[in-house]
User: Fold this.
Amino acid sequence: MTDPRPSSHQKLLFTLGAVGLTLLGGVGGWAFERQRSDLGPGEKKAVEKIVRTYLLENPEILPEVVEKLRLKDSQKQLAGIAAKLATPFPGAVLGNPQGTVTVVEFSDFACGYCRQSEPVLKELIAQNPDLKVVIRHLPVIAPTSPAAAAMGLAAAEQGKYTVFHDALFATGRTDPVSVDAAARAAGLDIDRAQTASRQPQVQAELEANMAYARQLGFDGTPGWVIGDQVLVGAVGKEALAKAIAAARKS
Assistant:
């Protein structure tokens, strides 16, 4: 009678196959873990040696592995909040407010890397008429960041967010004089803006952004959410464009 249990050789081949699937980001992780527990000490060492040798001889697969793991992590981070992230504070949008492809940027007016990303963002908006950029203020860089963010949301309330946003980033500062100058350059009703900046919904928005940032693992700015991808830092035009193209296809 044939023994229905797999031989050591079969278990080894099965495990190697599962390892390959796991490394390539496909199914097989569960099967690998289950089969690995059935291996003896000698078989485990053999598997580990073969896998190590394979990776050393084929290092080109490692970026693909890292990318797959990053996407899996992003999906976990976005669980339950993706739709909320894409819903802006009224008026706090760059690009096409009715756009079908959404980029969410966590930004701070005091952030040099955010300012560095501004020309890139403008290029992408110009090249993608369907692009909606939702700005989520994460005022963590400077003591003056919260007041600057609040004034930005006050500008959004008056329908002048983009002009204020560009004017304040152009100054490179978030001190009260610079914020006031940007508000005036944007043509804001200053009294109305100051009142709006102190409204509970503004504080609630900033607190919500802090909570979202914690879930996404952002400890600074800029941070990006594009489709099912989460990107950190001034990643540059190529990375953002690639994520936008992927989001458009999904």
Remarks:
- The domain at 82-249 is CATH 3.40.30.10 (Glutaredoxin).
- The CA atoms of residues 117 and 235 lie 8 Å apart.
- Residues 1-34 have pLDDT under 50 and may be disordered.
